[in-house]
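Structure, all two chains, one model.
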Amino acid sequence: MGWGRTRWGISSQKKKTGVIAPKRFVQRVKKQNEYFRSYMHQEAQKRMKIKKPPHILVIHLKRFKYVEQLGRYKKLSYRVVFPMELKLNNTVEDIDSEYSLFAVVVHVGSGPNHGHYVSLVKSHNHWLLFDDENVEMIDESMVQTFFGSSQEYSGNTDNGYILFYESLGGKS
Amino acid sequence: MSSSSAAVNSQSPSLKTYFKTPEGRYKLQYEKTHPAAVLHYSHGKAVSQLTIACLKERPTTQASATPSIPSSGGVRSAAARLLGAGNGSRALSFVGGNGVSRPVSGSSRIGGSAGASTGSGSSQPVANFDDKGTYLIFNSADTLFISDLNSQDKDPIKSIHFSNSNPVCHAFDSEVKGGHDLLIGLHTGDVSLRQQLQDPGRKLVAAHHYNKDGSINNRHRGRVAVAGSRCTCIAWVPEGDGTFVVGHADGNIYVYERNKDGTADCSFPAIKDQTQFAVAHARSPKSNPIARWHIYQGSINSLSFSSDGTCLATVGRDGYLRVFDFAKDQLKFGGRSYYGALLCCAWSSDGKYILTGGEDDLVQVWSTEDRKIVACGEGHNSWVSGVAFDSYWSTPNSEGTGENVVYRFGSVGQDTQLLLWDLAMDEIVVPLRCGPPGGSPTFNSGSPAAHWDSVCVVGSLQPSPSIRDVPKISPLVAHRAHVDPLSELIFTNESVVTISREGHIKIWMRPRHAESNESSSSEAVVPTASVKDRPTTSSIKNSSFSYK
């Protein structure tokens, strides 16, 4: 469950476009290996692997950041492309575990202290948008409108915030 | 100039106006965009696609007179063809009033005056047109724009507004007889065929209209769909004598003939099994579409014909590339992404290789002879939205390597990057045929490698490749080209053209052309600062090491 500790630090990201990719995680460990190696002056390797891939993988995007000049938190609407499917390949058993996105919590609003939450849930192969007592069927392509914006000040403030992936079983 | 110029200038100043490759610098030559006003409600949803139209003058592009338009040189007649269609805002002749030509705000060249519109004897030179007659066609929100590839002008010279539905895809064929050359697929599932480009200016723009109100696929109408299933991709069949195909979000491809009336009633049998590939030909000879290809039950994201028109490749939501023998209605082979949907595909000009790109952030190279994946390109940090072979690229023969064929291709993605790749076939093929090299500490020598040596059965779909077994390639150059996610790239003889989802276009001149054009371009200001990102020489990494 190494994922619980992984922070997708979009706040530190210079580029305002991002993506959820397991390979970032692996690259970070690779970098650490290089430092480690030069420090130890000998061949050594440090790595992190997922011992047991979870059945439900929850990814929480850190969409809020403290801005010192303002003395308060700010919402980050940066574009983060989250895939409908993903694979974790850095598992102990070397078997890719495949996941499928089935729910998204969306924060609507420009600031961290106000706004509204809606959720997208995939049910029987259809995406449903839950907004308080309103439930609406939406096309899967609509999910892309919640990725965020590549421009700093756009009117789009509906951003995916918490992502829920379900394991499709251990098949490669 | 106009508001649209401001939109481009507001882009991040950190973007470089050039990128380096081993053969030299690619320089940003021109930028094209559209009036910013169209964007206001399209955020995230509308994706701009790009088509390049080369207007071929029948005699030559030199100063000789064209037969159809006396006293008009090739230069101006090409311009007049476009301008002619832009005279005023009259409703077009086809039903529905769907698509009204109107002058672009901020472009004074068309204006309201039809002065240059006939092109017959107008003595006023059209300053913005050179002799190349190459135009960029792109959609943004509810409008289709046409820009001159070789002019400095940022603004489009013409726009076609669609009042009922957004244009989502388009295709152009300069070989089509009779002038109807521009196909437009709409969000409603309608298809419009127009003589927008090639027709001499004096005629009004006429258009055929197919699948009116999405009539053929109305029965799949869901609560969400507007009417019918939306078009996702459209293509002329090369050498197809006016045949074209349209891919839809419901997993169907319809085959049309240009000359047949699109209004006749046509029906196809209900699809028995949504998951099975099936081709149904229309019973009535009058029917247009003439055939329905049901590929599977999910969206068809892109399709591409081999240059001889014999083979059709499709990619879709289920992550499968499918390659069909188009004449025989047969699946030749198929294969799957590492995970997620595939979004784009492209053929090499010799028909031997197919590129795919998708939501797994990878660019995959497939061999049509071996019917399997031969290489996997890692370099994008987000979805790969456009791939293309550079058919103008020739291997530098100065090194005398002779035998080694190198394919150059490019890809663009939602990470705002343009990547160029070299594919050296001798390096690719050898490790595959010999099987994975042993003795690597990290290589999983277990079972998954086995299917590489097995013969791939004709007509079968293969599962996702085990990513550890596929040879990896790295990009030759990675360049952050735009501030917005990119949607497509096209190689031309002189340049690489990239377009963002929002409809901003950049034209990157190839090294050999950049020098000669430098003086004429005021926009391509090249900083003299030293370059940090040196291009890395591309090579196929040893597959045993490239395990992630």
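The interface with chain A takes residues 43-45, 222-225, 249, 299, 317, 319, 338-341, 359-361, 378, 381-383, 414-416, 444, 446, 448, 463-464, 466-468, 480, 483-485, 548 of chain B (CB under 8 Å).
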